[in-house]
Amino acid sequence: MTPAEPRGDSPPDTDAPTGSASVTTVAPTAPGPPAVPAPTTAPEPAPTDTTALGGADAAAPGKTDAAPVRSAGRPVVRRRRRWTLRRIDLAVHAVFLLAALWVTSGMWVDPAGRVAALYSSDPAQVQFFLAHSVRVVLHGEFPFYTDQFNYPDGVNLMANTAILALGIPMVPVTLLFGPAVSFVTLVTLGLAGTAAAWYRVLSRHVVRLRLAAAVGAWFCGFSPAMLSHANWHPNIISQFLLPFIVWRVLVLTRSTRPVRDGALLALLVTGQAFINEEILLFTALACGVFLLAVLVQRRDLWAAAWRPLGTGLAVCAVLAGALLAYPLQVQFAGPMAYHGLSDTVRDYGNDIAAFFAPGSTTLGGNERANVNLAPNYSEENAFFGWSLSLLTVGIVVWLHREVLVRALAVTGALFAVLSLGERVSWWDRDLFTGPWELLVHLPLLDAVVPTRFGLITGVVIGVLLAFAVERAAALRVPDRRTIRIVTVAGLVLALLPIAPMPLQVTSRPPVPKFITADRWRQYVGPDQTLVSVPVPSMGNTDPMRWAASTDLAFKIPGGYFLAPRNGVTGDPGRFGGRPSGIGDLLEEVAATGRTPKLDDRQRRRFLDELRHWRAAIVVLPLNEPNAEPLRRSVEQLLGPARQELDVWLWDVRTLTSQSA
C-alpha cells in the first residue's frame, strides 16, 4: 500500500508524507524516503468529479480550482468539505452495517433457535467460549485453560482460539441476552467492522478517492471467503485490526519515531493474538512477502528503511513477546498442549477451479456445483468467480508499471498457490504435489490450514480494486462519461455474481427445560459432570450449548475442541479428547437407530468411564433423534430411566462415588 496525502476531513497523520498522489516519487516529511513508493504512473484525479465523491483535496498542488480554498473564506469552505466527507464516511459505514445485517438476517430472527444450515458444531463451540469469558470476568476464572468440558482432562483454550479479545467485551451482551445473541452480534460486527477498518485505512493512506476505498473495503469485508466463515467462525472474520497492523508495519519503513511506532504495533499484535493467531500469522507473512517484493524492485529504498523498520520490529517483538509470553507458554507447553494440527484438516486445500466459481453464500453461488472444490462449506476461501478473476488479471496487466501493483500481484499469487495445499487438483482430480508439502512441517506452519491462505489473496484483490477505481477515475480522456460507464459495468459484472446473500439457516433443538429450569442442580455437584446421550463430541455439540446457557455452571465430559491424542500433553493434535468406547457406541446408535445387545464387559467399561468422568447424572432429551434406541441401549447398562420434564434421567451417583 502506498502512503498518500492526509485527507481534508481529518488532522494530518504525522507519519504520512505530503504531496499529491500524482507525483512519481515520494516526498516524505521526515528524513529518509519511505520503503513503500507511491505509484509510478498514477495520474492526478480530476478536480471536480473525484472531489464530489470524497476524493482528493481540492487544494492539492496543481489544482486549478484551489483558489477559493486559499481565499478569505477558506475556513468556511474547508469546514463544509469536512462535513461532506464525514457524511460520505457515515453513509459508507451504514451500507456496511446494513449489508452485515442482511447477511445475518436469518439468524437474527431467532439467535438461540437457528444456526448455519450446513454445519452447526462451531457456533456451539464459540458460544461455550463466550460463556467462559463471562466466568473470567465475574468469577476470576483462569482464562487460558478450563475443565468445564472434556472433564477431567480439560482443554487448553489458548490452543483453541477462545476469542478472549472478543468474548470479554461481549460479556454484558452475553449476560443480558445469552451467548447465542452474542454469537450473531460478533458475526455481524465482524463483517461490518472489517469492511469499515479497511475503508478507514484505504481512504486515509492508500487512495484519495472515497469511492475507490469503499469498493476495495467492500470486497475485503464481504468476499465469498468472509461470507463462508461468517456461518461458523467469528474469530476469522473479525479482521478489523489487520488493516491497522499492515499500515503500522509500512509506517515503520520511514518512521522518525520507531520506538513509539513499534510499541503501537505491539499492542495491535497482542490484541489480534487473542482474536485469532492464525490470521495474525497470515498478516505477518503477507507483509513480509509484500515488502520483499517492493524492495526487489526498488533496492535503493532499503538503505533508508532498514534502520527504522528493524528498530520498530525489535521493539514490537520485545513488547508483544512480554505481553504474550505467559499465554504462549500455556499454549505450547501448558496442560493439554498439542503440536501440529489434526490430519483431518492439515491437508485442506483449494481446488484450482475454486478460484473461478462463485461462493455458495453469494448471488451466483450453487452449493451443489461447489462440492469437492473446497474441504467443506465453511472453508470456501477462494471462489472469486470467473469475471472477478479475469478483472483482477486485467488490472495487474493495465497497472503493471506500478511498483505496488506488481508487489501486490506477487503476494496474491504466491498465497493462492500455497492455498492449493499438498496436492494440487483441478475439479477434484489430483494433478501434482504442491509446494505446501515442503513447508507443512515447519514450526508454526504445521498449525496452519493451507486453504485459508486464500484469505490473503482476497485482501490483495480488494486493494487492487481500490487502485483500479481510482486510476480509472483519474484518466484524462475527452469522454469521461464513457470511462465511468465502463468502470461501473466492470465492477457490476465482477462483483454482482458474488454479491452477499443471507446465510442459510436451520432450526436446532432448544435447550431442554430440565436445564433451563435448573432441575439439574439437585443432582450435579461442583466436581461432578452431567453426561449427555450421545456423549458430547465434534458431531454432538448440543450439550455445549446447554452448559453455555447456564454460564458453564456444570461440567461435561468430551466436547468439540483440539487436544493432544490420548490426552498426552505434547502429542499431535486431534479433535476431541481420549477415545471413549461408550461414546463411540452411542454415536453409532444415534446414527443408525439400531439397538445393540451389550455384554458385561461393555457394561463394566461404561461404568469405568462414568467413574473417570465423575458423572452424577446421565441425560437423554426426549426429542433426541433415535431417542428410543438410545434409551434402550443405556438401560442395558444402567437400568431403567425415569422421565423428568423433557429428558430421560439416570442418577448414577451411587455407581460412580469413590466408595462404589
From TrEMBL:
Keywords: Membrane, Transmembrane, Transmembrane helix
Signal peptide: none
Biased composition (Basic and acidic residues): 1-10
UniProt feature, compositional bias: Pro residues: 30-46
Annotated region (Disordered), positions in chain: 1-75
Segments passing through the bilayer: 88-109, 176-199, 211-230, 281-297, 309-328, 383-400, 407-427, 447-469, 481-503
Domain DUF6311: 97-437
Biased amino acid composition, Low complexity: 18-29, 47-75
One Pfam family recorded for the sequence: DUF6311
Protein name (record): DUF6311 domain-containing protein
Source organism of this protein record: Micromonospora solifontis
Highest classification ranks of the organism: Bacteria, Bacillati, Actinomycetota, Actinomycetes, Micromonosporales
